[in-house]
Specification:
Length: 293
């Protein structure tokens, strides 16, 4: 039975799904920021987007990535400026750590002209562990362009950015130890031998493959990936399921069959893990990918 889906909700699902998928492959904070500015314009229909990062020592916000007229060519920012925390709309959002939507900048004395004067602005903070990382800012030449839906979506995107930056920072802090050698071996088993496809895979069976104790493996995965063993395994399963859900080669598969192929041992395990890792159900994700294609 075909279900009627609100087009606005569907577009929202599509946008969130796209950002989550795109950010997942990024390996540096710089790439994360540039990817967001580009996709804010492509996915949300904005004409401008800038991400500021807080310089904690100087207490200023520095433009780190941009798209639109601020970005004339690959990873360059035209008229790159800095803003003091507390100054202007961007600075106020950084100070108060609360998003703002400005319908008409002509009536807001805080407005600072960047590359050109625009009439509406939307601004959302990026918070990591209760500390300000930066601000996502977008302006539009028309007044009253932005709405509450835009604010909602940009807040979710800021949260996705926060999560990815936190993850990358954690990876950069890991020392090269014997434990990391075991973890690298585990990563190879996951990526190349795809042991996660075995629905009976267990902590003890993987520990035996690595020649270490189950207790040590559990601690290793928790330290190296900041998650539990089962969440670590399911991350790979969900990633494979996502690929198959928007692959024509698996178009004849049911959604549950895709989950079982990826290594899940039941429908409920698949749906619960997929929702946990993506924020969407498998069917909602597949629907969003069909729209994208």
């Amino acid at each position: 039975m075909k279900q009627n889906v609100n087009p606005k909700n569907l577009n929202e699902i599509k946008a969130i799904s796209y950002f989550a998928t795109s950010l997942g492959s990024k390996e540096s904070i710089e790439d994360v920021l540039w990817d967001i500015t580009k996709n804010v314009i492509h996915q949300l229909g904005f004409v401008d987007c800038v991400i500021y990062e807080l310089d904690h020592e100087k207490n200023i916000l520095v433009q780190r990535a941009a798209y639109g007229t601020k970005n004339p060519q690959h990873k360059t920012i035209y008229n790159q400026i800095t803003i003091e925390v507390g100054i202007g709309i961007v600075g106020s959002v950084a100070k108060n750590r609360k998003p703002e939507l400005i319908p008409n900048t002509k009536y807001d004395i805080r407005y600072i002209v960047d590359d050109c004067k625009r009439l509406s602005e939307i601004c959302v903070p990026i918070i990591i562990n209760d500390s300000l990382f930066g601000v996502i800012d977008s302006e539009h030449p028309n007044s009253n362009f932005y709405n509450e839906r835009h604010l909602h979506l940009l807040t979710i995107i800021a949260a996705l950015c926060s999560q990815k930056v936190k993850e990358l920072r954690g990876q950069n802090k890991k020392p090269l130890t014997k434990a990391n050698e075991y973890f690298k071996k585990l990563e190879r088993l996951m990526k190349f031998q795809k042991i996660y496809q075995n629905p009976n895979l267990s902590l003890s069976s993987v520990a035996n493959l690595l020649g270490i104790s189950a207790c040590y493996l559990s601690s290793l995965v928790n330290t190296a990936s900041n998650t539990s063993f089962i969440n670590y395994i399911n991350k790979y399963r969900v990633s494979e399921a996502k690929c198959k859900l928007h692959s024509n080669h698996y178009a004849h598969y049911t959604i549950v069959s895709v989950g079982l192929e990826a290594g899940f041992n039941s429908k409920s395990a698949f749906y619960n893990a997929f929702k946990k890792h993506t924020g969407l159900t498998p069917s909602a994700y597949q629907q969003s990918q069909l729209i994208l294609s």
